[in-house]
Design goal:
This protein has about 400 residues and is an alpha/beta fold. Helices cover about 25% and strands about 25% of the residues. The strands form two sheets. Strands 1, 11, 12, 13, 14, 15, 16, 17 and 18 form a nine-stranded mixed beta sheet that branches. The protein has an eight-stranded parallel barrel with strand order 2-3-4-5-6-8-9-10, surrounded by six helices. The protein binds ligand LLP.
């Protein structure tokens, strides 16, 4: 057993063996159907994590110029890098053009600017059109992206104009269509509906006739936040089978995916130390040295993360587990049942491999939590050793 008590908290603890295994399963299941996976690096841009994924030969899906730069620096193949986002700046578009990165274009207005910048720099932009398919993802409304309410993608009403614009411009190379309907999608039903919609769109708009040769179905496959240890690897087999079984496109179309959470979500945890257990009025608080600055998801989406006390085997008690940040929403769990918990105990917050470290806040000028890695029972990383109770 690795001794975590020596590591300064809070820290992100990554299980690299689980990551390896998860990526291998995803690759194998995608490979059965000839599907191509890009890693949505927004989920976790840690160089060690992203480096392992790069070594498996996956591409990278980016939503900022800096994510594109990070992906290039890490050695992701340029032709495996795709760049989406509703608000790409001129500089970011120029960067993508200079590196010949595929742009997933999200509006007619953006298409006009890409055309202009490509024309001025004498380059041809490779573009895919991100279409808003108006499909419900059945997930939290903050992480739904494919309905008319959302800012993402080109609406079906504008798709024809966008295709015509691509055909008429010598600076735009139309490659195909991109979709992404949301994140943390547990039921496969929304994906089935998406596939059916894509079949209709491909045919109705004669996408192949416009030169469409690739289809990117985005990401969004959910993970089990309630029982992460029993279900540490998502059911990639069932996921990819939905697409293989439902998509009905002309032969030779490349099918791409952009997976983030499902690849990295379960390989990370936050290790945090209890600073105080505080008796409130009618409830007890466990106050940890990690806060919403290290994991925003519960504050932002009321997301559930399983919490374990690895120091205590006392009788179960009910606590609100909260962080030290000056926000009432800095709460990890309300009415969590934990073994009797005291100052100095180590807690683990599970399923923090995705959208935890990559969404850290600088609020309250909090120190950055360091990553620590476990592989084959050995710990590595440069987290300082603890200074807790340094005064004793
Ligand atoms: N492709 C695009 C265009 C995306 O916007 C996203 C995620 C993905 C792929 C990857 O989705 P995934 O496979 O990871 O679900 N911060 C939120 C999630 C935001 C997701 C944003 N886009 C959370 O913590 O739940």
């Amino acid at each position: 057993m690795v001794d975590l008590s020596v590591i300064k908290t809070p820290c992100y603890l990554y299980d690299l063996d689980l990551l390896e295994k998860t990526v291998s399963v995803a690759e194998r299941e995608a490979g059965r159907h000839g599907f191509i996976i890009h890693y949505a690096i927004k989920a976790n841009h840690d160089p060690v994590i992203a480096g392992i994924i790069r070594d498996h030969g996956l591409g990278s899906d980016c939503v900022s110029g800096n994510e594109v730069r990070r992906s290039i620096e890490l050695g992701f193949h340029r032709n495996g890098i795709v760049f989406a986002g509703v608000g790409k700046s001129d500089e970011e578009i120029q960067l993508a053009l200079g590196e010949d990165i595929l742009l997933n274009c999200e509006s007619l207005e953006e298409l006009g600017i890409i055309d202009e910048i490509a024309g001025k720099s004498g380059r041809v932009a490779r573009v895919a059109l991100r279409v808003n398919p108006s499909v419900e993802a059945d997930t939290h409304h903050y992480i739904t992206t494919g309905t008319d309410e959302n800012k993402f993608g080109i609406s079906l009403a504008h798709l024809q104009s966008a295709l015509d614009k691509c055909r008429d411009s010598e600076f735009l190379d139309f490659t195909g269509l991109h979709f992404h309907i949301g994140s943390q999608i547990i039921s496969l039903e929304p994906y089935r509906r998406l596939c059916e919609r894509v079949n209709q769109i491909w045919q109705a708009f004669n996408i192949s006739g416009y030169g469409g040769r690739l289809l990117n179905m985005g990401g969004g496959l959910g993970i089990d936040y309630y029982d992460p240890e029993a279900n540490s690897i998502p059911d990639f087999e069932a996921f990819f089978e939905v697409f293989a079984g439902t998509l009905d496109l002309p032969a030779g179309i490349e099918i791409h995916f952009e997976l983030g959470r499902s690849l990295v979500g379960q390989c990370g945890r936050i290790v945090t130390r209890v600073l105080y257990t505080k008796q409130g009025v009618g409830k007890k608080f466990v106050i940890t040295d990690a806060g919403m600055t290290e994991l925003m998801r519960p504050s932002l989406y009321q997301a559930v993360h399983k919490i374990k006390n690895i120091s205590s085997s006392g009788n179960p008690e009910t606590y609100d587990v909260v962080g030290p940040v000056c926000e009432s929403s800095d709460v990890f769990a309300k009415d969590a049942i934990l073994p009797e918990t005291g100052r100095g105990d180590l807690l683990q917050i599970l399923s923090c491999g995705a959208y935890a470290a990559s969404m850290t806040l600088n609020f309250n000028l909090r120190e950055r939590a360091h990553p620590v890695y476990i592989s084959e029972g050995k710990i590595s990383g440069n987290a300082p050793v603890k200074d807790f109770r340094a005064h004793e």
